[in-house]
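Quick question, first post here. What does this chain look like in 3D?
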Amino acid sequence: ITSLPPEVIQLGEDLNYKIEIEDKNKQSPNNKEKANTFTYSIIKGPKQLKLINNRLQWKPTKEEIGLHDVEVLISDGLYEQAHTFTINVNDKPRITGPDSLIIMIGDTLNHFINATDENIKTELTYSIRTTISDMFLNANTGQITWAPKPKDLGVHFLEVAVSDGFETGTNMQKITVIVEGLPSFLNSPPTEAYVGLDYIYYI
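> Answer (accepted):
Ran it through. Tokens below.
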């Protein structure tokens, strides 16, 4: 057997694995006048796994997330060879938190990136991309902390991502962070008032 089966497929993708073998025997062991041919049969695998000639095909469902043992028996009519492997149906993590945040000057942003993953015992890691130099992220918990300063008033953008460790198992979200400040007076009230005259102060 010269082909390598995929170790992971993402939920929503199809398995389409062609089993390739190498056999130096060119004639059939039962009839020297015929070319050597092979038969394939599934011994173990998911219920909906199909074998068409030497190609395994399967579209896993949400209920089939996780590890699956597969065994295919290959025979040339004289000898048999078992092809066994394990394939992991991976659920891509999904970020479920809000896509906009509001923080006041003087307060500290304390936001957790919320994500779900149907795979059991999956360790998620988090990352951010932003131009805010003093924003901090705990890559293990997804906690973002930031204490904006007056110079940070306005709208900021960042990208947050969560990964389950697989190449395509990453989800990203864009978050808008709005930094607001308390209103301030542009003028000062008069400090003197006179008897018989109205005290008027325009703010």
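The CA atoms of residues 10 and 90 lie 5 Å apart.
The radius of gyration is 32 Å.
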